[in-house]
Design a protein that fits this description.
Largest sheet: none
Radius of gyration: 24 Å
Number of helices: 22
Strand content: under 5%
Shape: globular
Structural class: mainly alpha
Length: 524
């Protein structure tokens, strides 16, 4: 047999093997009942969303600026009534001091699409000027439907894609594991409370992110890059995941036959995606900078309200806003963020792996949440996504993180009048978390569990319960009106730091495990 014939034969065999392997994946998932399971859980998840949507939203009956609900509605009003070049420009018809657009262009396009829908069924809810502060039953229902439809079109399919990509070995998991993991992803109580209670569209950017992760796990790096760029262009907070994507993709490229070519391909795809999204604003440098300046509201300060990150937690002792102006604070927070996420990124450049990539996503997003500039309570949704993707591998970290993520949002949820949905979703989460038959990983093998110890864990949970009760039943002293918020934030911050350290250690331990496996194989 000639070399040419051998090469042809090898190529054909490889293709056949890949096709058969993909067929096995799909047939295994179908045999396990994944499509039926996913559909059943999805319908239940939609029901939960509908029930939460019956409750109040952010800023209801609270003029003059109301809240996030009014901000989203106002962006629809602006985008369907003004030319595209005026969406980010201050003017007579677009007062940027009243909920001016401060998200990337993809959010603006999404607002335009939803605005067209509202104008079709309820024109007065998006009419220019006269619709400011619009509150009506039909308007609320239509707005709620836009979020639910975004879930249905983007987030839910992305979760299914991730499940298929993640469970790509037919014999790897049991049906109950897959069903449990789907449930945790679709019934994330924090995401439901923020998107369908408070009112936002995090399901879109998080949906693009989870689809990007799924694509990369499936070996489709270029597709994953496009999807992640869409997430970045919907909400700039998706930058929280950038070090993980950069480190993992660069690490993979450096191990291929033509690394420079592979990196160039990714670069062209990223630039092309950004150019396509930003095209209406690339006609001049001034227009581009006009939009870009809206995406970094540094004038708001290093943090707002009470958020469970480093700057807010330490502000009790160090008055950052008094000691430093915005310029130095930007540099300090930027440096702290890069330093904290650097080890995780380096690990993926050195030893890229699918499991390491998921840990890197969690560690990177936690670093940004803890140390970056202008973090909101709602930003906890970003590290929660990879924590949920790792729920089966790290069940203790997942449940521990979720409980304190919810607690960190509790003051915000109370202001929005969503106390009943909060406790209902928390109870549902605990119920599903302890579903009989789910495969368990022993908690005493977990770094965070071992560090805290059983007694400490019980004490922390007791403190969490007491803070819930105190916040609902007692009034803070007049001298310290935000005392309870500060206590909640500091407790949550301490737990987030422990999770961050534990997950960074776990990510670097992956290298050690790989080396041990290689040594064992050599001995065999």
């Amino acid at each position: 047999m000639t070399n040419k014939t051998k090469k042809k034969h090898t190529t054909t065999s490889t293709t056949t093997y890949d096709d058969v392997n993909n067929d096995n994946i799909w047939s295994s998932l179908i045999h396990k009942g994944t499509p039926t399971t996913f559909t059943t859980i999805a319908l239940f998840a939609f029901l939960i969303r509908f029930l939460v949507a019956l409750y109040p939203y952010s800023g209801l009956g609270n003029p003059p600026k109301f809240g996030d609900f009014e901000a989203q509605r106002h962006w629809m009003e602006i985008t369907i009534n003004l030319p595209i070049r005026e969406w980010y420009r201050n003017g007579t018809n677009n007062d940027l001091s009243y909920w001016g657009l401060d998200y990337p262009p993809l959010t603006a396009y999404q607002s335009w699409i939803h605005g067209v829908l509202l104008r079709r069924f309820h024109p007065s809810s998006v009419s220019l000027f006269s619709s400011r502060g619009h509150e009506s039953y039909l308007g609320k229902q239509l707005m709620r439907w836009t979020v639910i439809s975004s879930d249905a079109l983007i987030f839910f399919p992305a979760v299914l894609y991730f499940i298929i990509a993640h469970y790509n070995q037919p014999s790897r998991s049991r049906k109950t594991d897959i069903a449990w993991h789907i449930t945790m992803l679709l019934l994330n109580p924090c995401l439901i409370l923020i998107d369908h209670g408070h009112f936002q569209y995090n399901c879109i950017s998080l949906g693009f992110t989870i689809a990007a992760v799924a694509a990369i796990l499936s070996g489709k790096d270029l597709v994953g890059s496009v999807l992640y760029c869409l997430a970045l262009n919907h909400k700039q907070m998706s930058t929280y995941f950038a070090p993980a994507f950069f480190g993992h993709l660069l690490g993979k490229c450096l191990r291929r036959e033509h690394p420079v070519l592979e990196v160039s391909k990714l670069g062209f795809v990223v630039l092309g995606t950004f150019a396509a999204v930003w095209w209406p604003y690339l006609y001049s440098t001034n227009s581009f900078l006009e939009v870009l300046s809206r995406l970094a509201p540094f004038e708001r300060g290093i943090f707002e309200d009470y958020v469970a990150n480093f700057w807010c937690a330490t502000s009790i002792l160090i008055k950052w806003k008094r000691l430093f102006t915005t310029g130095p604070l930007k540099l300090i927070s930027f440096s702290a963020t890069i330093i904290s996420c650097f080890p995780s990124m380096v690990q993926q450049i050195k030893s890229p792996s699918n499991k390491g990539f998921l840990y890197a996503l969690l560690n990177s997003s936690l670093s940004f949440y803890l140390f970056s500039f202008q973090v909101h309570e709602k930003s906890i949704l970003l590290p929660l996504l990879p924590a949920t993707m790792l729920a089966l591998e790290e069940p203790f970290i997942f449940k521990w993180f979720m409980k304190f993520a919810m607690l960190s949002m509790f003051p915000l949820i109370c202001r929005d009048g969503l106390i009943v949905p909060y406790f209902a979703l928390l109870a549902l989460f605990i119920l599903v978390l302890n579903t009989p038959g789910q495969r368990r990983v022993k908690e005493n093998n977990n770094y965070v569990y071992n560090y805290l110890g059983t007694t400490t864990i019980r004490l922390i949970l007791f403190c969490s319960l007491i803070l819930h009760i105190v916040y609902l039943t007692m009034q803070a002293p007049k001298k310290y009106p935000f005392l309870f918020e500060a206590m909640i934030m500091n407790l949550c911050f301490s737990q987030f730091v422990i999770v961050t350290i534990g997950c960074n250690v776990k990510q670097w331990m992956l290298n050690k495990n790989v080396k041990l496996d290689e040594i064992e194989k050599k001995h065999i």
